[in-house]
Amino acid sequence: MLKIGIIGCGAIGREHINRLTRLIPDAEVVGCTDYYLETAKKTAVQYGIRTVYKTGEDLIADSEVEAVMITSSDPSHATYVLEAVRLGKQVFCEKPLAQTTADCEKIIAEEVRHNKPLVQVGFMRRYDPGYMEMKRIIDSGSLGAPLMIHACHRNVFQPEGFQTEMGITNVAIHELDICRWLLRDEYKNAQVLKVRQSSRSTKGYDNPQIVLLETENGSRIDIELQVADGYGYDIQCQVVCEKGTINLPDPNSVIKRADATCSVQLLTDWADRFTTAYDIELQDWVNCAGEGRPTGPTSWDGYVACAAADALNRSRGTGKFLAVEMIEKPALYS
Ligand code: ISE
Description:
InterPro entries: Gfo-Idh-MocA_inositol_DH, Gfo/Idh/MocA-like_OxRdtase_C, Gfo/Idh/MocA-like_OxRdtase_N, NAD(P)-bd_dom_sf. It is built from nine helices and 15 strands.
């Protein structure tokens, strides 16, 4: 039984608590905390969690907590991850791992000091059956080398306080991880473009943006990023290979024929799109972290996505591709 403490009881935190308590028999959520203590208390009552901690640091320090799940606000992730790793605890951290590459490097240095990976980053798309099948086909070599990826990440709306840079660090970060995973390749250069703006872009942030990436092997990736599309939550991905193309399937949906129209309902909430992936991801983390050997996306993967996001955000308005700068990969992650 893996005893887990959760830092952050917002939307994704409660989703994960729900999964851990209802679907995963080998997991026990023993404690929780939140920036808003009332939220933590309510969550504890709802899920029968016995301890509510005043701070994330208190939760991490308690010897009762074997593994820490971090689902707090993006800017708070790095401090909690670092502290938990310092104490040698298993960590699951929602994306992004950190806001800066400097913070990712501190986490990596701490894992190197322990001589083992302790962190799994919440890049759940790697567990999505659609993406997994795409990867299987690419890895089989049956379609030849992958040459390009065309992807779209479209959200219906964003909460108050959303900023242009978050389009990369909070939203397109999923593509920054999944594209290099699909291609087994690393990023060389990155550029973000501001294109004709949607009339729905009234809140001061860029929408849409186009993300362009070039890999070490010369593959090209373009990602259309809409953070307020007004019609649905729509994730598309096409990999163009030498002998054919592979497309991410849309989620299953009933096809309705009525009023001389054939229609398929689209999702609107991102939390509903990758539910199977989240289920598999958490089960996998509990199995592997319980045995002290997490096998999912590592701090290094979190770092690479952060380095690419950094280059993209720095490139905005320059009209240039910028190099994705990274430290040498420690042997630990090979
Ligand atoms: C959210 O955290 C996600 O993970 C979604 O995939 C993304 O579309 C959304 O914009 C993020 O806030």
